[in-house]
Amino acid sequence: MGSQTGSGRKAGEKQTVTLKRVRKRQGGEILDSPLLTERVGSCVILTMNRSDALNAFTVDMHRALLDALVVAGANPEVRSIILTGAGRGFCAGQDLAEASDPNGPVGSLGEHLEKTYNRLVRTIRRLPVPVIAAVNGVAAGAGANIALACDIVLAGRSAKFIQSFSKISLVPDSGGTWTLPRLVGLQRARALALLGDTLNAEQAQVFGMVWQVTDDDALRDAALAIAERIASLPPEGLKLTKRALDTAMETTFDRQLDIERDLQSLAGQSADNKEAVAAFLEKRPPVFGTQGATR
Ligand code: T3D
């Protein structure tokens, strides 16, 4: 591969893994951070880290994840983000203990959604780089829909997807009522949302929710292999492709043709496009610039 990361490393080369296990002090006690941030080459791995509660979302975990996504998305050396969970789960959605604490930070669910889950899934969709969900166990409630908001979804064999909202008399959120019917079709989405049935990894793949299923212990490497492939591709085209596919679900065929025209004009002006075409014609590997997509 001819592409380089901004640090001058070959994109596919794994650099030393640095695990930033931020610790915070609370009432004299040192607690693990609700999010672990790790950098492998040009990929940032974000691990939700509340394994005792299957990585259910607290306000603290929301804050940490949103901040980390924004920071990663603004760094031109970062070419992809992997989102995964610590322990045996991906994410069990909202932490129900925190949400039901009358003195807790959640308050009105609508306001809470706007400040947390809605911001989170909007950020994932608007990031200029692909976000890969590595679903390593149960993904329930908002946890399932956050995975489905990612650009590429990988699942370990132990993964389960549950729209668990109906069991607690809530409505699917985090974009689930938008994303799920588009992925699986309206009839399946209705049954999944109303009954809250569990889909295993293979079923979720058959339903079109998952790109690839791997053995659990191969999940991280499979996600990193995709991150390496992304790093070998020119970033501007990926950023514009992500944008085009997002609008495709909301618009008419005619309008989408206009959008493709406009995005293709931008893509066609990029140095990476010129280099890729020249390399093809000259029968040589392309050498792309060191910068990521324009932010
Ligand atoms: O607040 C708002 O803004 C509204 C937004 C809502 C968004 C949502 O996500 S609503 C949906 C919330 N999530 C759920 O309803 C799922 C609840 N969890 C479960 O149904 C089950 O735990 C699972 C099916 C996900 C997994 O079952 P299992 O048998 O593998 O594990 P478990 O034993 O139930 O859970 C393990 C531990 O995690 C357990 O704690 P313990 O007993 O070992 O101390 C359990 O209480 C804890 N846990 C699991 N999910 C949550 C949780 N703790 C708090 N909140 C959770 N969501």
List keywords for this structure.
alpha/beta; 295 residues; binds ligand T3D; globular
Structural account:
The protein is of the alpha/beta class and 295 residues long. It contains 12 helices and 13 strands. The strands form 3 sheets. A 7-stranded mixed beta sheet has the order 1-4-5-6-8-10-13, sandwiched between helices. It is globular and about 65 Å long. Mean pLDDT is 89; it is low at 1-31. The structure holds ligand T3D. Ligand T3D binds at residues 53-54, 56, 92-97, 99, 106, 109, 112-113, 138, 140-142, 162, 164-165, 168, 170, 173.
Task: Please report the total strand number as a whole number.
Answer: 13
Counted by DSSP, the helix tally is 12
Low-pLDDT parts are 1-31
| Average pLDDT number | 89
How far do the termini sit from each other? Answer: 24 Å
Radius of gyration: 20 Å
Summarize the structure in short.
The protein has 295 residues and is an alpha/beta fold.
Which secondary structure elements does this structure contain, and how are they paired or packed?
Elements: E1 18-20, E2 23-26, E3 29-32, E4 35-40, E5 43-48, H1 59-74, E6 80-85, E7 89-91, H2 96-99, H3 109-115, H4 117-126, E8 131-135, E9 138-140, H5 142-149, E10 152-156, E11 160-162, H6 176-184, H7 186-195, E12 198-200, H8 201-206, E13 212-214, H9 219-231, H10 235-248, H11 253-268, H12 271-281
Parallel strand pairs: 5-6, 6-8, 7-9, 8-10, 9-11, 10-13
Antiparallel strand pairs: 1-4, 2-3, 4-5, 11-12
